[in-house]
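Fold this complex.
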Amino acid sequence: MSVFWLCIIVLAIAVVGFVFGRQRALASAGGNSGYLHSLPNYYGWNVFMKVIVPAFGLMAIWLIAQPLVIQNSISGMIPESEIKEGSNIGLVMADVRRTAEGLDNAVAAGAIDEEMVQNARADITDITARLKDAGQVVTSTITRPILRAAQAYRSMTSSANLIMTILVLAVALIAALVASLQSNKAYRARNVVEQGILALLIAAASVAILTTIGIVLSLIFNTVEFFKLYPAIDFFALLEWAPSFSGRGGSSALGILPLLWGTIYISIVALLVAVPIGLFAAIYLSEYATPRVRGIAKPMLEILAGIPTIVYGLFALLTIGPMLVSVFGQDGLGWMGGGRSVMTAGIAMGIMLIPFVSSLSDDIINAVPQSMRDGSYGLGATQSETIRQVVLPAALPGIVGAILLAASRAIGETMIVVMGAGAAARLSLNPFDAMTTVTAKIVSQLTGDSDFASPEALVAFALGITLFVLTLGLNVFALYIVRKYREQYE
Amino acid sequence: MTDASLPKGGAKPHLSSLTEPDARTKSRNAAEKRFRAYGVIAIGTGILCLLVLLFAIISNGIGAFQQTFIEVPVYLDPAKLDKKGERNIEDIKKVSTFGYNPLIQKAVLEQVEKAGIDTPLTKPKDMKAMISASAAGQIRSMVIENPDLIGETVDVRFLASSRVDGYLKDRVKREHLARDKNIDAEHLDVVDGLLEAGVVKKTFNPAFIFGADASESRAEQAGLGVSMIGSFFMMLVVLFLALPIGVAASIYLEEFAPKNRFTDLIEVNISNLAAVPSIVFGILGLAVFIQFIHLPQSAPLVGGLVLTLMTLPTIIISTRASLKSVPPSIRDAALGVGASKMQSVFHHVLPLAAPGILTGTIIGLAQALGETAPLLLIGMVGYIASNAPDGIASGLLDPNSAMPAQIYEWAKRADPAYYERAWGGIIILLVFLVTMNTVAVILRRRFERRW
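Structure:
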């Protein structure tokens, strides 16, 4: 029985339990719901909940544990000789799984009968041929141990599925029975149901924690794996980034420094574009602009923030790049080789960050109390003098925080640098050179066909953890500054 | 009256006129004007950037919605298509697209001769460069659907090759032809002639919006339709997961959570997740959903899950804001007439906060729709999304692309004809985003209540 139908049956039991529990409660009150502790539906939901939770809980645990247990017992069956050089037990197990699946599908399609599949002495070439006929993707060679492991895998899986079905149904039925027996007029059904809902709410809130844990664990595990294959000192100190494309480790040079340099250089260019424009725009909007101008200009700038980054990437690649080449390229000043460069990506990213800087600074400038401005005007300062000498110093910590947040955005930005910055890692000071960044390399190392066990692919996780720590650190620091500043005036 | 005497002799009184400012006041006023001008320049630059961006998108992308078609009567030669003459569908299917190419080329050549174009291209083979590689497949499936057409002359409208299309759109220029191996100046002369004769036409191309992606050499055929379906299924997953989880989490944090370490931990996590670069969520998706749980690669389900985790903070933050804006008197009134805390929240607070929640959700969805970076890592690029899924399960689990991933894929391809399609794809994407944001704004305007 498939998991889907099992779920449907459990749900059906729960629905029957709902009706039954509700009626029992009503009956105990002689049909008058006024005598009940809770509204009648709560008695129904009480039963419903008590059926669903243990049954699905058991099913989930079983479904997670089953492959692990079976895998463990099967992998013992595979002799050492079966694991070829350059392969590992995981790959062989994948073969076994694929073979078992192929057999299942072939049986379902009627190409092979069950008896033949069960037969341990079955002719391998025959089975392979039949599998191919049935349109099943088979590994290059099914060997005797793999076939036997696959047969064991199938039988264990099917018996495990059977046991699971029986257990889950038994749990659901018993729970339905026990819960409906509880239903009588004195039972505090509402409190129980509300406890259940509260647990659900807490679980939903914990998803955020789980996500963080997931991110951290997946990064750490793979990074540890990477450092087993590649020395950490080289990763952090080597001035060269040259992954080998053969897929075999050893000859690659995977130093993060050129990537970090590219990331920081592009971010600096982006901030040089975004901070002056964004800051002056914010000052003008909050201090000078009439409500009408503000009502038009602010939303227009904020449109820039709503545009997806892929658009900026394309803009960099196809508009800014060629434009820069026509001025700084071979026909012009000769500083630029191709359309992709630090400047190309930096300018596009700067445009993207303008609304980010301006709206954050706008909020912060508006938070400076009016009394400070009035005091300055009273001493005879002009408006710009007030802004420069009173408002900006007061808002400075907040503005620094905003810039740091923008910097963290710039460092983590991917699409613009993937499309606009180039692919060559290089340590250079020329802003018209193509350089690459941490994020761009994460993409390029993980989107090939390379296998995930090679250092060339695993390095992406080490890059990822660096990026994560960097952006998180910047953010925490920026928020700390902003929060500290806010307390001054509230 | 005062005894103080006026300064005598040397020290001159500081004379200043209200009507005529002195040098210092002048310079201060000039500084004021300059400062104001900086602000205007900054805003002007920002808006200029926006306009340039929009102009670049529209001017480069609008061409993608038009495509060059060739409309010719094609004689479906029985001698070529059905040698046995039995009209047996199996026999007809055996003729591959290669069998159809000569017929089409001949048909085009006939038109060239009919239009009286003086050209050195006199063999049917010479026409190949002007015809899309998809034309043969198009006619073949037409014939297989209706075998009775064999032996007749049918008016067919098929795509011109991307170079011809580029020529009509000024992308392929005569001066650059020397470097182009795919088409010669003679071909372009023929195209000019056929254009006058009305055989070659540039018209609106719905296949760009609704069609499937094509291989790298057939830029003229590629469309965004299938990846649009991929995006749709991803948004479905995001909506069905992020909305309930986000609302439940917000209700807990806003209404029930006690002030303790655990609550603080959740709050810190949410605000940090909002700032984590999107590519990191892609790594998470790759490591957890694909490597660990073994979900299929390139599946919209995985994309949807990753985007769910990414949009969750956005939805939680906006939901909490709208829950907070419901005044406490509503809760107190509900509690006062005997509702439990849970009932007061679900029966009274939540419905009042619903418009705000909806607005936040739509904005979150719009954000997720345009997100590309995490999709690259879970394999939604490099894959030619050519088949539309049939049914919900296949829509969720079969490999597909998504709109922004498809745009990225096009931008990566070498043929400049794909650049135009990438810009065109962006127009479609932006139309979706603008629509969603407009709906959100309208919802907010209409239903937002000020207490």
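DSSP finds 17 helices and two strands in chain A.
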